[in-house]
Design a protein that fits this description.
- 4 copies of one chain form a homotetramer.
- With 493 residues, chain A is of the alpha/beta class.
- Chain A has 3 domains: 73 residues, Galactose-binding domain-like (Jelly Rolls); 104 residues, Immunoglobulin-like; 304 residues, Alpha-Beta Barrel (TIM Barrel).
- Chain A is built from 8 helices and 29 strands.
- In chain A, helix 7 runs parallel beside helix 8.
- The longest helix of chain A is centred in the middle third of the chain and has 17 residues.
- Chains in contact: A-B, A-C, A-D, B-C, B-D, C-D.
- The interface between A and B is medium-sized, with 25 and 25 residues.
Chain lengths: 493, 493, 493, 493
């Protein structure tokens, strides 16, 4: 039984009996039920989206924690020995592409099990070791590194994908116990020479921060609407998306794989003060989130950056320690992607040395009257001074409110005109800067936020209205500005 | 030469020669030019609406300081002895109505002048003293108290007005030197027994805070649009308006006189911190404003409250001293109206003892989740404890954002639905409370605000969107709620 | 290979070879491919939504003919003998429920085939005749009528559904060749005594005409948005929907089955002049549409009316002949449901005698100033005089434009206020009328229309704006009016 | 007593006694009351804006006939001999500017009166004949033609205006009986060589049709809002306005005089069928309208075209006769301006020979899919063939609906995008055409229309939505397109 996302605290019952609880709306979880009898059963999911005291990551915030089963759920019948997951890591050397494949088998029975594993990547065989032994009630990882000299690379322009299939046979090889197909691609990511490189070529991310939000569907975006979002982004000439501020629905990541869109995926933690980070459950809930994110999404070639803890207390020593631990955790699971986090601490930032990419959230011309170009140069200096020297830099957020339908010749803040002006001024400033490896507009679409007083009253209509399209995906005036800048740059390069 | 309002710093030139400077958009000023030659002359007005350092009252704020000549201007030819102004104060005793009439004459010549003053109020003669002597280059006040036993009272339901005419004759009485017609009414205002009384009858103010603002005209509202505003307020059943946060165009006050709308007029100072109040020019600019306001508008019977310094530092001892001085100043000019000021300091307020009416600005259900009824009871206690005991109390501001056209079944903050809900909850709470003498919704119409960052970003679209109608005067959903409550109460009482 | 809907002309290719063409966006079609080899194949669908000359039913119209594959498509592997379809017809007699089950088998091979058919309805066996012989390259219908004395009726309040499963075995009964599961319900529909009755009880349809239209998805509404539509209709208290003006997506019909919503399903032909009806392909394309509609949807208990030819030339003798033929065609396929058509011909209507239910589209207060109550009485008389006497009557369309967001105290036509007024006046008139068996508001949601000049310019913004919700499903002011009337009536009855 | 405009039927009472009735909202009228006694009097105006049977010109139409006193009214005290009106006609010959001045005196007494007339134009004397004799109860016209060799011409770029003052003295010249000041300018208008010329220079009118309409004020636009309209038009680079479809408020004409905007003023009759024109009062009401229009507005130099009968039955011989008569009537009053009318009859037009300028209303790309360029060439041919050869031609109307706030990437009809596209295509086509002397966009601002069914249902929301700004004067997307085209052309020429 697999749940791709329940927002945000799920108690799952099987015939009235609690199987377990899962916390965090944006990561998948599974339950394995041994020896289910044929017939009708009841699966009940009690969902709680209140900001209860055991919720360290879902707090009143600049997006909405919808309640409900927001992503697909499925029930599969499996044998007591099965393939739990499979990870593919592409490698490139002088002799061409190869890939490491890690298969995790799980034996839920109380007996030791022997099995055989066959694999295939596209048309090419994957030669696993002959026989595998999985101890009772345990998992066993089987790894193999295989050259695929004829493999074509996955790239933005040619997003070549391959099915990677593992089949688990019983001991004598004539009965299939389980199988698993992942879809993978060959590409490398590196950050040499102050540049973000994919397959050794420098790339500049031009795209959006995106929330999963729709007025009729909440966070449970139907697939056709995901496709629509993707098409709007492509129409504007974007080549990248940041899954702010949580791991995304895998179907959207699939779309990114297919369309050659670079993804910055990040864990679920936005705008936490040190006090928020000292919540007794914070550390564990982050750890769970990181693990579930990386395990579930490691095979998406589109993901080229893992990130953590947007705008949290990275300007404190206590906070720094938590950043360090989380980076370590992710590196222990995946070394093939650079890590980053988005900072708004300016000269007070303490963690740039921990990350592979320096990323800053600044809103020149919105929250202040600073010049985007000057501010960006300044930010580069802050980063250089704070341990970020020679690392690629990304403007991970910038933008402005624009209320759809509010146009006024005064061009005051909040008009569509002003939003377009501000975004234009930002893009104009950033595109020529050679040290920038990315610019991600805040944000793709407007999104609902937590209703509250205090600073959330700057979110008029209980929305963050900095979308280039509104919640209904109607383009604001900024749309054509972005299209002009993103497409021009594409044409130039 | 008279200017009813120039926003906000005016340098007036006559044929290139500076006549003088006037500061403050919302009060009238005059220049007397001696011995003007016939022919063509140039009057130039240099207007500055920047927030320059000599501007203590116009600062970035929750309304917009438009630039320009925002109210009528006129040039009159006068003799060198003329009537500068005339004030009427109605009085009521056991024998009925009488009125004190104060006429200020001004002699701009260098010779002593003798003159005669004739007066008329409606059809009744006003017997001034026979001859008046005005010294050279001086003013002279002529006062008389006259019984008008047949006068009908001005009231909300029967707003009877009378022309009060003074004619100034030369010494032998056969040449008219000047005349002046004011329009006056007979009514008393008092605050006995914890109630606000007009003509001895308790009244409860039900109405709006109103800014002079229109998308096409700025603060220079054409008269037909003033009438339209008045008709919308009457349609909703309002009986009162607060000229937040400055003295209003006299034509609007005329409308209030004619339609029987009670007016709370206040000087121009909103939301000043102690630091703002310590601006070296603050005290003098307030003093000017108070004087110009009272002198210009004293004859409007509709004005039943003078107020000062909305939401300023009345919670500090330094601030208190300034409140005291300003109240003293106004009382020295007019003792016929109670004084008040609107406070948001809750239990920290220090000035309730100085005012005749206790007024509080609270926004239950908007800035916090407090219950309006409970909060109002609490506010009464705060007031009682702070020197406001036995004084009438007015809810001088309450309300909520509502963006015209933003309706959503979620009823989140910012929707028209939620605004209607919040206003309804407030009115529902306040109408039955016997100690309340007024409830003034914030606000009649949306208004433009200063564009800035900081707290003004809670004013989405560079507007204060708490209007019951939008800037174009389109009724939001709250309109019919207000109409229902204000009219019902009218029907009941 | 089955296509549930391709809009509107589909040429389907298999590995580059044309399998066939299907015309009409709103009905399903299949291709059976014999002897497909394992491996990769290409299915190409060339879709044309132009108003080409072979298109008699899709013409410029008051809705939009989107281009594309608008409904699900599937490929199934089947044997050469398979179950083509299965129809269930519930019957009620003194001894309770029974049902006739018609199974159509198809043999695509060139040999005679023997087989066995097993059936089950819920937990009850369906005893088909022992063996079935299907001649080569032919179909064979197997019918059986079975008592289900324990079956619970399907009703609006208790929409009980049962799975009806047929399994096809080979001759010796030990190999399953094919199976088919339909979901069915037990209910009768009749029109005795001038009333529309379901299970013998009179019902009054209160609901909407609905177009399949969404700004982001066109006619390809994702299932979650269908559910959302359904919930909005239920929230308003509706109990019925008319699939104007074409057969609907079966998933929406499934929702109606599940939620107990009565459905008027109609074929695809709207507003055709006699000339339009004389298009050489009109008759055949209608015939196809009728057949595909009835065959595909016959098992939906929610469908209680089949209808044809909305607002076509039923006021001419030539038109009448076509109405007659189409009614005959449908009756030949299904006698368990009454038939109707929506007429706007008033006293000129010629076909009321052919239908079981008299249905009229009138727009009092919109297209004219007639009083809804008087007009409805008049319509009853027209119907009585034209052969409709003693037949139930349905107001199949009424309504008014209302542009979302356009509110104005003037309440002129086009404002949300006026739309609410008009719908209220209509409902107020119709609800008490004893001879009415239904009232269907035009329409549920706004929909895009063909862009053109001429009469389509009355469709401002290239939309039909008579929806109670707009295209984004935002409730207009009429929403709460409808809710009030539909729910009140529910509470009363 | 003068009324500048009462909409649309006014019965004026003086102390309860009917002075007379005036019909037509858009022309001024006066009453002269002899021997009024000092004291208080009541003037009552009973206004009727219903479409009553004696109303031939105000009928349900594509604009709204607001009810009320829509323009200023005044009461003047005059002697029984007074100046009724004064007309100025500029003339240009080889020796420079001169002007004919016609003064109409009226004697309301029963005695013959002698008087003297003095005149002044700017600083120059106007030498009227020495003494004037006006018979009892009669009028007398005094004319003089005077050279003004030093006068500067009025032009679009230098709109020089002069005050023209007449003073009426009593017989011995020592008492002023009356005076009148008109403001005039020197310019000629001609139509030689197929071109419209002002002061001998060809001009191309680029501007708007404009209705006097505002959501809050109806047709009674306050002066500041007129100024605002003017500034929007100037901002877009317009040099012309057509007062469709009636004579305008003289204050707006004053603005045109001052800002150098060319005016096409037309009488009040829009879209009349032959049947409408055969209304028994039609002819007389038109005649009144024409006379009042020309007499009242003859002194505005900005008016360079008089026009009549927009889109009426000029395609019939009966209609032609009426066009002929009305042109004759206007020519009998003023020969200094060319005449025109706007036709939509294409090749069926019969009256082009009667006019000085050929004007056509066509809406390519809106009411049909014709190419604007081709259609305009075609229209030229139609005109040439129908008697319009060698006459200047004006595209007097073209445009498209655009609903403010309705933007959609589909660019369907009704979106702001499509409106902008269509206007752009029209301007692109017309600007290079050498035979065009003008292009007047339909229309400046949206306007309310008569609420009705029938063709008026193409006016969604009971508005004509073809404005480049909406009723609130908010710019639609077309605004910047127009600005671009009108300004570019200005820059080029």
């Amino acid at each position: 039984m697999v749940f791709k996302g329940v927002s945000h605290t799920a108690d799952v019952y099987w015939d009235g009996c609690l199987l377990g609880r899962h916390y965090n709306a944006y990561t998948p979880f599974t339950f394995v039920l041994p020896e289910v009898e044929a017939g009708e059963h009841e699966i009940a999911v009690l969902v709680d989206n209140s900001f209860h005291e055991e919720s360290a990551l879902h707090i009143p915030n600049d997006y909405y924690s919808y309640g409900g089963i927001i992503r697909p759920a499925a029930v599969e019948e499996i044998a007591d020995l099965f393939i739990e997951r499979m990870a593919f890591t592409p490698l490139y050397t002088e002799v061409g592409w190869s890939g490491r494949i890690d298969v995790v088998l799980r034996n839920t029975s109380e007996e030791r099990r022997n099995a055989r594993l066959h694999g295939k990547l596209g048309e090419w065989d994957v030669p696993f070791a002959e026989g595998v032994i999985v101890p009772p009630d345990a998992t066993r990882k089987v790894s193999v590194t295989v050259p695929f000299p004829q493999a074509a690379a996955w790239s933005a322009s040619e997003p070549q994908l391959y099915p990677l299939e593992a089949q688990l046979f019983n001991d004598d090889g004539n009965r299939v116990l389980d199988d698993l197909i992942e879809r993978v691609g060959f590409r490398t990511v590196s950050t040499e020479g102050g540049q973000l490189k994919v397959n050794g070529e420098p790339v500049v991310l031009k795209g959006f921060n995106r929330h999963e939000d729709h007025p009729l569907c909440g966070a449970a975006i139907p697939y056709p609407l995901m496709v629509h979002d993707m098409e709007l982004m492509l129409d504007m000439g974007a080549n990248a998306v940041r899954t702010s501020h949580y791991p995304n629905d895998e179907r959207f990541l699939d779309l990114c794989d297919e369309r050659g869109i670079f993804v910055w995926e990040e864990n679920h933690a936005r705008g936490f003060s040190l006090k928020d980070m000292q919540h007794p459950l914070f550390e564990r809930q982050c750890e769970d989130c990181n693990r579930e994110m990386v395990e579930a999404h490691i095979n998406h070639p589109s993901i080229i950056i893992w990130a953590i803890l947007n705008e949290c207390a990275s300007d404190t020593m206590e906070g720094r320690e938590m950043y360090r631990k989380q980076f370590d955790q992710i590196r222990s699971m995946d070394t093939s992607r650079p890590l980053s986090f988005a900072s708004h601490h300016r000269e007070r930032e303490l963690c740039f040395d921990l990350a592979d990419i320096v990323s800053v959230n600044l809103y020149p011309l919105w929250y202040g009257e600073e010049d985007p170009y000057e501010l960006c140069l300044q930010a580069r200096k802050w980063a250089d001074d704070a341990g970020g020297k020679d690392k690629p830099m990304i403007m991970s957020e910038f933008g402005a409110d624009g209320f759809y339908g509010y146009r006024d010749p005064s061009r005051v803040k909040g008009t569509e005109e002003r939003q377009a002006d501000i975004i234009q001024a930002n893009l104009e400033a950033y595109l020529p800067l050679p040290f920038l490896s990315g610019m991600l507009i805040w944000q793709f679409c407007d999104c609902r936020v937590t209703e509250a007083d205090g600073w959330l009253l700057t979110r008029a209509g209980t929305q963050n209205s900095k979308g280039v399209v509104d919640r209904y995906r109607r383009p604001k005036l900024a749309y054509s500005v972005v299209k002009d800048y993103f497409s021009r740059r594409n044409a130039d390069s």
